[in-house]
Design goal:
Number of strands: 12
Largest sheet: 7 strands, antiparallel
Radius of gyration: 21 Å
Number of helices: 5
CATH topology of the largest domain: Rossmann fold
Strand content: 35-45%
CATH architecture of the largest domain: 3-Layer(aba) Sandwich
CATH class of the largest domain: Alpha Beta
Order of helices and strands: EEEEEEEHHEHEHEHEE
Strand order of the largest sheet: 4-3-2-1-7-6-5
Number of domains: 2
Length: 201
C-alpha cells in the first residue's frame, strides 16, 4: 500500500489539484495532472517549505504536501526499496528448498544465491502454487523438512485470482499453519509466509 495525499501541484508554470500516490517504485498523480513518474527517473529532489520539488524529463514539479509530509516523502523516494531477496529473508547463508518449478524471473533472481542442495540444509522453503492439488503436493514435500521450517507460498494476487490469498490462507490454516508475513513478488504474484501453528515464528 502506497502513501496518498490530496494536494496542489505546480508544474511548468501551471497548477492544479491532484491526488498524489507514492508507491515503492513510482509516484502517480491523478486529477488535474495525470502522470506516472518512475522514482529512478526523478532528479533534483528537495523540500522547500511545505513543498516537495523534483524534476524529470517532463519538467519541474512541486507538490504542496506540508512540511512534515514533504520531508517524509523525500526520504522515502531517496531510500531504495529492499530487494525481493531481502523481503523474503533469503541470503547465501539461508538455504532455501525450492518446491516445484519457478518460472517468474524476479523470483528466480531473488532465490538464486540461497538454494539448498539437499533438504537437510534448508531453513526455508518456497513453492509456487496454482490450485489446491499443487498446494497439497508442496506441503507434502515441505513437511519432510525439519520441524518448524517456514514456507513461502507464492500465488496469484488480486480479486480475480482463481486461487489467491484467501483460498490459500483457508487451506493452510486448516492444515495447521499460520501466516506471519506477506510480500509482493511481481505485478501478478504475491507470497505469504507460513509456519506450523504449534511452532510459532
Amino acid at each position: 500500500m502506497g502513501l496518498e495525499a490530496k494536494c496542489r501541484c505546480r508544474w511548468n508554470g501551471a497548477s492544479g489539484e491532484v491526488k498524489a500516490i507514492l508507491e515503492a517504485h513510482e509516484l502517480i498523480l491523478r486529477g488535474q495532472v495525470k502522470r506516472r513518474f518512475p522514482l529512478a527517473d526523478l532528479s533534483d529532489l528537495r523540500t522547500i517549505g511545505d513543498e516537495l520539488h523534483f524534476k524529470n524529463s517532463a519538467g519541474e514539479f512541486a507538490l504542496e504536501l506540508g512540511a512534515d509530509r514533504a520531508r517524509r516523502w523525500a526520504a522515502k523516494i531517496a531510500t531504495p526499496p529492499p530487494s525481493l531477496a531481502k523481503k523474503l529473508g533469503v541470503a547465501p547463508t539461508s538455504k532455501v528448498m525450492l518446491i516445484g518449478p519457478i518460472h517468474d524471473i524476479a523470483l528466480q533472481e531473488a532465490l538464486k544465491d540461497g538454494i539448498a542442495a539437499q533438504k537437510e540444509e534448508a531453513g526455508l522453503s518456497v513453492a509456487v502454487v496454482h490450485d489446491e492439488p499443487t498446494l497439497m503436493r508442496a506441503l507434502g514435500v515441505h513437511e519432510s523438512l525439519a520441524a518448524g521450517t517456514p514456507i513461502w507460498i507464492v500465488h496469484k494476487k488480486g480479486q480475480k485470482a482463481s486461487f489467491g490469498e484467501g483460498p490459500v490462507r483457508s487451506f493452510m490454516r486448516g492444515a495447521g499453519y499460520r501466516d506471519n508475513k506477506v510480500c509482493a513478488v511481481s505485478d501478478t504474484l504475491s507470497a505469504t509466509r507460513y509456519t506450523r501453528s504449534d511452532f510459532g515464528g
